[in-house]
Amino acid sequence: MATNSKKPSQIYPASSTSVPPFMPNQIIDPSIRGESFDQLIQNRGIRFIHKRAAPCPNMEKLTDNSHNPLCAICNGNGFLYYCEKEIWGIFVSNSLEKNFEQQGMWEIGTAVVTFPALYPDGTVAEFNTYDQLEIDDFPVRLWELKEYDPSENGGVTRMRYPVDTIDVVTSAQNNVRVDFVEGTDFTVNVDGNLAWIAGREPSYDAPNEKGEVLSIVYHANPRYNVLQQMRELRITQQLIDGQKTAIRLPQQILVKRDFLFNPPNSES
Ligand SMILES: [Zn+2]
User: Fold this and answer.
1) Phi, psi of 146 (to 5 degrees)
2) Ligand 1: distance of its center to the CA of 258 in Å?
């Protein structure tokens, strides 16, 4: 047996530069405080209206996908909304992608939004695919080309999104630009549609079914559809009254600008 590892025979002096022990006597709770994260979002976020989505049951059979495209329950988009609640959230990233089409310009980029775990009323805020989020405080400017048709929607010109304010409504009559004036030629009704004042409507060629083409620039509240949650469930354990308790953490949601809100049958 090797005998060359002897106990030290000398007591070494304590150094005057000793540092405190690396481990504290009591290990502090390292968990994230869910409430403070929620409060941060609440204090820095913008107001969204969250509408929960459910698939529309207006079909004859499940097996043949026979949903009525002119369905009035869901406006033809296949999902109906229930349970509207306010919630404050923060845009984390916003893509700059835009999509142009002949009849308008739609920003259809995706964005990531962070929401607290709870609604302001204390109930759990959950998000799922096809839920809708609307920003009611910051309208955006959109444009559309419409052909006037007095037979559609009772003569009311319906835009894809309910109109908040009208910027300009203009048409070309014999190669001359003619503007329609709000209050004189039309009003914006409670549903956010253009209601024409009798005798001031754009022209309509009934035999050829051709209406005057209108360029309409307006402001409307942006709507987003929830694509997915970035993480299925975010849970941490937190000390509450000395007990480790599992609590929800704020959540990240991937959203996409909605660009087909009105029913297809309302488009002229
Ligand atoms: Zn439906």
Assistant:
1) -130, 150
2) 17
Count up the domains in the chain and report the number: 2
Based on the fold, state whether residues 192 and 238 are members of the same structural domain. Answer: no
Res 265: pLDDT: 42
Domain range enclosing 92: 31-138+221-268
CA of 187 to the centre of ligand 1 (A): 30
- Tens digit of each residue's pLDDT (9 = 90 or more) over 237-262: 777 787 888 888 888 888 888 765 44
| Rounded distance from Cα 77 to ligand 1 centre (Å) | 7
Tell me how far the alpha carbon of residue 135 lies from the centroid of ligand 1, in angstroms. Answer: 24
- Residues 80, 54: contact at Cβ < 8 Å? yes
pTM for the whole structure: 0.70
Domain boundary among 220, 239, 257: 220
79/194 same-domain check: no
CA atoms within 13 A on the CB side of 223: 16
